[in-house]
Amino acid sequence: LPLRRMTCWKCLLGGAFLFYVLIKIIRRVWARLNKPSTRWSDHVLPHGPLEKIAEGLYMVEGALPHMGLRRKMIIYQFEQGGLLIHSPIALNEEGMRAVEALGEPRMCVVPNSSHRLDGGVWKLRYPRMFLMCPRAARLAVQTMYKVDGLVEDYLKFDGVQIHLPPNGGRELIYELTYRDGSNRKALVCADSWFNLPKPLPGLMGKLMGHTGFGVTRVGMFFVTISRQRRAMAAFMRKLADIPKLSAILVAHGDPVLEGCREALLSAAARVSAQ
User: Fold this and answer.
1) How large is the average pLDDT for residues 144-162?
2) pLDDT for res 197
């Protein structure tokens, strides 16, 4: 009986993985056949104001089309001048003036294949800006617009450090240094972790599962089928030991601004216990 249960479980995982691959193929074909608009105004969705997290570190929360889930753009001021944009969001003109008051957008990270929505119009608006994505996301991103380079090759300077999770490089974690001289650190991610204060409604809520900070139910599925649960937990525990870690900024949900070490260790324990 246990063997039969194990076989059924593997069949379910295999079927789910094949379904995921099929959806990815359909998305790529659809993206090639339906190029996004190049008009900035077509990309502007409801969003909040520019919020300061710390000296040199800002965020904006905005809507996603046809979804209850919201997203966040992170903005980091380089000490040498200019801005790093993580997971770009097209803002209204008042919002863009607030961003430009911080500096010129210098580098822009499309963090993974699911966060491609507005990177192309940002590049059109700021031609001198260097647009990049992780190596593993390049093919998917370039079905919508071209990138100038890869994060792994270029984003290694001026207060930024890259951490590679055990996820095949689909998404990276970015460590940023505060600009107030305290040497405090912030971690930035897109979909590796969520921090949802309450369950989402409908199917999205069922897919996301766990509320609070950590890996979602969908994320746990991919960690499990790739047999990386222990590696992911160890990776998170390693990040928890970063000295003066003061913020974890996620693309979906609230920022973690207190107890960052404890939040990472608790999330790592849930990953390894699944």
Assistant:
1) 88
2) 81
Nearest residue to 166 via CA among 222, 217, 247, 114: 222
> Helix or strand or coil: residue 63?
strand
Say whether pLDDT at 261 is over 60: yes
Which amino acid is located at 37 in the chain?
S
Cβ-proximal residues to 183 (8 Å cutoff; 6+ apart), any chain: 177, 243, 244
What is the CA angle 155-158-161, rounded to 5? 55
Strand, coil or helix: what is 75? strand
| Range ranked top by mean pLDDT from 9-23, 178-192, 199-213 | 178-192
Q: Which two tokens stand for residue 130?
A: 């260097």
Q: How many Cβ atoms are within 10 Å of 269's Cβ, its own excluded?
A: 13
Cα angle: 58, vertex 67, 25; to 5 degrees = 100
